[in-house]
Amino acid sequence: MAENTLETIRAAATAALNRRARNAVILDLREFASFTKFFVICSGISDTQIEGISEAILEELEENWNERPWHREGGRNADWILLDYVDFVVHVFLDEKRDYYNLERLWADAPQIEVPDVEASAEYSEDDEEFDELEDYPFDEETSFPSDSGDNRR
Question: Mind spelling out the 3-state secondary structure of the chain?
Answer without folding.
Answer: CHHHHHHHHHHHHHHHHHCCCEEEEEEECCCCCCCCCEEEEEEECCHHHHHHHHHHHHHHHHHHHCCCCCEEECCCCCCEEEEECCCEEEEEEEHHHHHHHCHHHHCCCCCEECCCCCCCCHHHHHHHHHCCCHHHCCCCCCCCCCCCCCCCCC
